[in-house]
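Dear Dr. H.,

I hope your travels went smoothly. While you were away I took the liberty of generating a structure for the chain from your last submission, since the lab meeting agenda had it listed for discussion. I wanted you to have the full record in hand beforehand rather than looking at slides cold. The sequence, exactly as received, is reproduced here:
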Amino acid sequence: MKKIITLVLFLSFGIVSAQHDFSGKVVDAEKHPLPGVNVVVKGTDKGTTTDFDGLFSIEVADENSVLKFSMVGFETQEISGGKDILVTMIPKSSVLSEVVLVGSRNPRRTKLETPVPVDVVTVSDVKLEIPQTTINDMLTYLVPSFNSNRQSASDGTEHIDPASLRGLGPDQTLVLVNGKRRHTTSLVNNQQTVGHGSVGTDLSAIPSSAVERIEVLRDGASAQYGSDAIAGVINIVLKKTVGLEASATYGVTSEGDGETINVNLNYGTEIGNDGVLNLSAEFNDRKSTNRSGHHDLIIYDQSEWDNWFAYPFANDGAKEIDDQLIAEAGLTRDDFNFHVGDAAIKNAQFFYNLSLPTSENGEFYSSGGINIRKGTGYGFRRLPSEWHVLEIFPNGFQPELKSDILDLSLITGYKTMVGEWYFDISNTAGGNSFDYGVNNTVNDALGADSPTSFDAGGHAFFQNTMNLDVSKYNEEILNGLNTALGAEFRYEKYAIGAGEYGSYYEDGANSFPGFSPDNEVSESRTSVAAYADLELNVSESFMVGAAGRFENFSDFGSTLNGKLSSRLKLGDMFALRGSVSTGFRAPSLHQKYFNNITSDIVDGVMVNNGTFRNDSNVANQLGINELKEETSVNMSIGLTANISDNFNVTLDAYNIDIDDRIIYTGSLGNDVWGDPEENIQAIFESLGLNVQAARFFTNAVNTSTQGIDLVANYKWEFENSKIDFSLLYNYNETEVDDKLNNIPADFIGQEDVYFGAQEKSLIETNFPKNKAIFTIDYSGDKLGVMLRNTYWGEVTRDGSPWGVSQKHDGKIVTDLSASYKFTDQLSFVLGASNLFDVYPDEQVYENSYFKVFPYAPVQMGTTGAYYFGRITFKL
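The corresponding predicted structure, in token form, is as follows:
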């Protein structure tokens, strides 16, 4: 017996002594640690993963064992084991193999492996050669389903460009930064522009020099990410690179205006062994453009000719008299042209991104920044024939709208592993304030004593979001189950502040009456949410996903949404994918509480037009319903083809049905031609309101959107160079149901005022149904050439009731740039955007405001050709 025990102990010691500890660290090409890399002993099922510091340790029976390292987006490597080995993972050659953060909470998914379509724009690469410098402009020319147009003579919307994904409203796309919800602006678009009545996110408040890549999820995702994600999600991923990069760009339009200077600096440095701090500073100065037409309005008063002031000549001899009066003043008719075009904008921006490991499994992270914007836009010119305090401005005046915008954001968080669970707790705070000034104007009610500049007040929005996210990937359940759970608490506050007395007294400052104390607002709300998101790899070829989210808002109640998704591989090259989901968008605080009084001229008569809160007495008297959430049903189906590492194609079709979309009504109280509706006017009088028309935000329409997205990329590689070809295409069509929802009894028969043809066209036909982008990009050791043609399909604008419906034909815009690397550190680019100076079709006379606006702000906009040069230094 004693001998047997001795033999057992000997054999056991032999087995134990045969175990070997292999350990090391896995990093990327820039020597940053890579967490989550799979480490498997070749020929066995024994394995582990790297921690947050990229470290691993594993016991093996044979000292000659080989370790296999694999991770999505990187080449698989096999390395002989040992202690303290360093493994550098090499990215796959395909540009479509990026791991994405949106569309799936499984950290192992690339954009071709997600069950829903995701575009990845590597800003850090393309920004060196393309003409565009802001995120809004970049995405417009790199993602066909994304559109952003600069507006003119549209108050605050001139200063923050509205943007759209899949033809839906700016507030129906959720924006994230490093995967965390970003705040919206404080601006309501209320000037018959893109996104009329909506509140968007100012993408251009984030400097492009701070951005590594942008992920565009083109699918409904409210069940995963919450309110606003009806059209999709845009996730901006900030840089974590180490080194120095500086760039300066100068550009000007073919008309000699719109001069642009952009200077940016990005610097990244290591902190400790594995921490990274990346800093970006950027300054952009864009001068205004003017594309005004030579109008035929009456310049000087000719009331004896029985003409309404400022209207075109109606009698023989009237123009000759006007020309004589202009000559006597020592002026020409051109001195009375309007200023129509892009506003002048100055941006000063600073952003940072910090990653700081605190332990073997823990990491503190933080990011954020500040954007300071000063802008000058232009209202309608006041002609002397309109009799605005001629003692001060005998020849009329061109009002200027000044903007003072401050945008702040801060993300802080900590992530760690607890057992096999990944924990991420974070807080995201952000706000936007927008203050107005009006220059070169008067308040008619103050007469000759009127100032010519006013502080007109402003508005502000603040949002704070707390998140707890936990996830776990279990390889033992079928072919792998990713489980993600989370909770969110959000606080929002909206405020309006009054301007100085003269800005709002009686009729207020011309062009932009200031906010009065009666308009002041300070309102807030909270929301609480919980979600679950599961993805199961049933087999190597088939995955299914399910997500659900419950959210409760303090001001309108609860909503529950769900999503199902799936992906099926068809051999090595092809896969089918699809999803169906419900979604929602909570009414913004802006839409609930924005209110002001403006003055308009209707048939030569000054009328006061009020926007009233949804909970006001006048809203209650007129039967305007309380705001509730918009709801949606999204469906998509797609095919992906990974023909080779150099050739990939995706094709996706989608349908988005939205019920109870929030609109901004027309001017209620008058018929479509501006004649008073006596029953409505009586209500105004009974409430003591000094207005002749009222507007509200209300859930009024249902819409249906269908479309197709095509993305094809091919890379042709040579020994020391390559050519990238890409073809991107989007077809998108939105229809508004004929029947309006929740229309009050007093407005039955006035549907064309409540929600008119012009407002309908802004939703249905203002964006191109077809948009295609074809790019050829050559990259050599020294020389690079980029040629891009963008096709903007036809759009239709409706100028009702005073104008007509007009179709604007499709156009092709060509961008061309050539770059040269003098050294590895220094490069130079010359190029042009809209090389052949293409404009939208000229507007017909009825839509041009008597020739003042020769072009509508559609398709590629009204800037024309833009030529630029850029110098970049890297270290």
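Two observations you may find useful: Residues 1-17, 93-97 have pLDDT under 50 and may be disordered. The chain has eleven helices and 41 strands.

With kind regards,
E. W.
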